[in-house]
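FW: tagging you since you asked about this chain on Friday. Here's the raw sequence from the shared folder, copied in full. Didn't touch anything.
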Amino acid sequence: MFAEYKENMIWSDTAFLLSKNRYNENSLIAEVFTENHGKVSGIIFGGTSHKLKNYLQIGNKVHLNFNSKSENRIGYFKVEIQEALSPFFFDDQQKLSCITSAMHLIKILTAESQRNHFIYHLIEDFYFLLKNENWIKNYIFWELELFKLVGYDLEFRNLVDKKVIGNELKYISKSSIEKKVVPNFLIDKDLNTKDIKILLNGLKLVGDYLDKTILKPNNLTHPISRQHFINSLK
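HL: got it, structure written out here
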């Protein structure tokens, strides 16, 4: 029993940096999503130093050693950069904002210390989609996949009726309270669109689902970082 306890308190892993906040003059409290231990919080001593803060960018991939004297006390990280992913997009404010939003969603929707390889690999996939021409559309489906992995599977096709209006195929929500037009690409997933108004409508619909189904029932507020991302696209 003691050997198992000790192993759980000292380990090494790779992780993506989800958030960081100043702990004192020289240190940070960071939240990371690790490959083998899920979401974990820890103190980074010297995290505000010039040497460390340059690569402690939200979304970067790091290698860390974790040490905690007790499971009831916050542990400590020693970190080394493994892959500087965020700086690749420093010249693209929209994608930087998307990175912040995505990492914040991981932070608020995942439980502490619950390993989930699917979510870890979803974060890896996120950086590939940012390099795609249709990255905004792909990001919307990335959010939906994240919701599915935390237990909320939204399949738009089951929530709409198909109608032809003015010789155009439309998908209308089945809601008896409010009839909404659902963008075709959310149903016909192979359909590509570059119309930013249509994509923003898709982000809004997904955000409404996030609020009503996931956040409000769990007393969580809609992340400001996601709204900042949406505003950057307008």
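FW: The chain has a mean pLDDT of 90.
HL: agreed, and The helical segments are 2-9, 50-53, 93-109, 117-129, 135-149, 184-187, 196-215, 224-233.
FW: great, closing this out.
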